[in-house]
Amino acid sequence: MNPALKAAQDALKKHWGYDSFFELQEKAVELILDGRDCTVVLPTGGGKSICYQAPALVLPGFALVISPLISLMKDQVDGLTECGVASAALTSASSSSEKIEIRSAIRENRLKLLYVSPERIASNGFIDFLRSERATISFIAVDEAHCVSAWGHDFRPEYRQLGVLREAFPGVAMGAYTATATEHVREDINVQLRLKNPETVIGSFDRANLIYSVARRGNIIEQVRSVIDTHKDESGIIYCIRRTDVDDMVIRLKGLGYSVAPYHAGMTADQRKKSQDDFVKEKVDIVIATIAFGMGIDKSNVRYVIHAAGPKSLENYQQESGRAGRDGLPADCKLFYSGSDYGLWKSIITGSEDVASETSLEKLNEIYNYMTGVDCRHRYISSYFGQALEQKSCDACDVCLGELASVEDSLVLSQKILSCVVRINERFGADYTASVLLGSKDKRILANNHNSLSVYGLLKGYTKQVVRGWIENLVSQGFLARVGEYAVLQVTADGRKVLKGNVTPALLQPEKKTGKTPRPRSVKGVSGDYDDPLFQSLRILRREIAEEKSLPPFVVFHDTALMEMASIKPRSIEELADVKGVGKAKLERYGERFLAAIREHPGLQT
Q1: Is the pLDDT of residue 521 over 70?
Q2: Distance between CA 155 and CA 160 in Å, rounded?
Q3: Which of 325, 315, 331, 261 is nearest to 293 (CA)?
Q4: Domain 3-202 is of which CATH architecture?
Q5: How many CB atoms lie within 10 A of CB 448?
Q6: What is the CA radius of gyration of the chain?
Q7: Which residue has the higher pLDDT, 124 or 115?
Q8: Rounded to an integer, what distance in angstroms lies between the CA atom of residue 166 and that of residue 515?
Q9: Measured at the alpha carbon of residue 411, what is the angle toward residues 409 and 417, in degrees to the nearest 5?
Q10: Domain-by-domain residue ranges, the chain?
Q11: How far apart are CA 361 and CA 349, in angstroms?
Q12: Burial class (CB in 10 A: 0-12, 13-18, 19+), 61
């Protein structure tokens, strides 16, 4: 083994408590150790940060890490400090004494990672400051690198100025790291950062431990409660589109006794920080938020993410749902949508000055096809990001678990819907079409004399929600298309084949629970065979330590480490050191307290 890679692996064991890198982590680490530029795309929970943190401990000098949010930098530095790694963040919140200490640490070569924002890189004097201190920069890491691209889902103009680092430090290797990037975005990252012949490392976009399911929105509070109640006292995130939706849901769920906090751009910075801190430190179970929430959250044990409305792109959905199960343990991702979500996002996108609004509309269509489709959710997401999923069944989504079922007379029902679109001359949207089929007395329908059509009232035995769902099924399967500014429905060439009886679409029945148990295909961590009461005791101890040190509990130990402790029940420091995620620094700080809790657990006393 390459001596530098062996040293990085030793550092991984010493500081993080893991015996070896994952295969793609090792490749990414080796590229940096070899001084190569690289673009690393690993899914949330795939150990992306280790790819630049571990080599920083081996190379001389310090790694300069560009990160988008102060909260994210703080969590990273807190976690590294707990692992015994010399790191710091230079932010607008840094005090004068902290800035002096950072300068001294750079000058005396005591620092291994320095986190800064893209705005600081662009500010006058920062690069000169690094030069004046004769700083030895081992390499440059650009975290959340998708922010570089206008085609990404979190575009930040300041990120596009980071190419100046290539001019300032031409001989220093640069790595770009992200959890979400299509091929187009990856190419843009390489160009904007001026990477030299970059090697690309791409992990699987499939998060096997996430259990995806999609349903049309009905009584949203009851739908949300059905998810929360299966995860009592566990952490979860609920996403809404609008601030008013967030506030309303907070009031209603809080009134029902749930532990919730809001997060959106209409709150003050202090209010947002309190909600985020309370969630991360497990003082509240649930954050209800707009998409403004999430990038700065480095919390590993989120057990469910609920979308109370459709997201605006698959990139957004992968990133937001991916905040669940970062510890590799099973987590639920439930999405409740309505056709109105599409119109709301379209209005927001077309009303903005987004340079990539046309691309954004394409992405909106793609997520809508995902929500209304009948394909395996894991396969659909993987395919969108250019990867194939080999398994026939993922056993971890509503489609493969048999929670969705086609109606028996799909062909006849489809023909009735398509015939209606033709009879109203392909000039109206989904809502109007459904109303005609249901025999509505709406003034527009009567004014247009559509109540005299043969298709009027053909589906009056069904609810509007069901008929709208079938229309969306036909759109997602390519038998209907939305056209123009007003999303008018038109029958496609494949739709004409349905009218002739040559093709049968799949129209879904309302949600059907089969009771089949989700079986995530490949889950990191320990099995379910652990002492749950002991695990809960260790969680309480972890929370006490976290409060003493003003740290998020997961920074002390991840759930997976506590589960392994509750499984093998170590009795000595040597045995505790073998638990994954227990590095040398944490063993010295907390080892005896956790061993005492294990020894004192009922039934384990000797």
Answers
A1: no
A2: 9
A3: 261
A4: 3-Layer(aba) Sandwich (3.40)
A5: 17
A6: 26
A7: 115
A8: 56
A9: 105
A10: 3-202, 210-384, 410-499, 532-599
A11: 7
A12: middle
Q: Report which DSSP code applies to 261.
A: E
CATH of 532-599, one of 3.30.420.40, 1.10.150.80, 3.30.230.10, 1.25.40.10: 1.10.150.80
Q: Is the pLDDT of residue 480 over 90?
A: yes
Return the HEC string of 266-321.
CCCHHHHHHHHHHHHCCCCCEEEECCCCCCCCCCCCEEEEEECCCCCCHHHHHHHH
The helix/strand count (H/E) of the chain reads as 26, 15
Buried b (16+ CB within 10 A) or exposed e, 202-219: bbebbbbbbbbbbbbbee
In words, the CATH class of domain 210-384 is alpha beta
Beta bridge partners of 214: 335
CA distances for 532 relative to 300, 526, 540, 566, angstroms:
19, 13, 12, 7
Q: Could you tell me which of 410, 411, 450 has the C-alpha nearest to residue 433?
A: 450
Give which of 572, 450, 553, 467 is closest to 509, Cα–Cα: 467
DSSP 75-144: HHHHHHHHTT--EEEE-TT--HHHHHHHHHHHHTT--SEEEE-HHHHHSTTHHHHHHHTT--EEEEEEES
CATH of region 410-499 = 1.10.10.10
Which residues does 593 contact at the CB level (< 8 Å), separation at least 6? 541, 545
Global confidence as pTM: 0.77
| Vertex 325 angle, CA 319 and 327, to 5° | 115
| Cα separation of the two ends of the chain | 44
The model's pLDDT over 396-454, given as tens digits with 9 standing for 90+, comes to 999 888 887 778 889 999 999 999 999 999 999 999 999 999 999 999 999 999 999 99
Distance of CA 182 to the CA centre of its chain: 15
Hey, is 432 helix, strand or coil?
Answer: helix
Q: Which residues, listed in sequence order, are joined to residue 176 by a DSSP beta bridge?
A: 39, 142
Shared fold status for 3-202 and 210-384:
yes
Please tell me the distance from the alpha carbon of residue 539 to that of residue 544, in angstroms, as a whole number: 9
SS3 373: coil
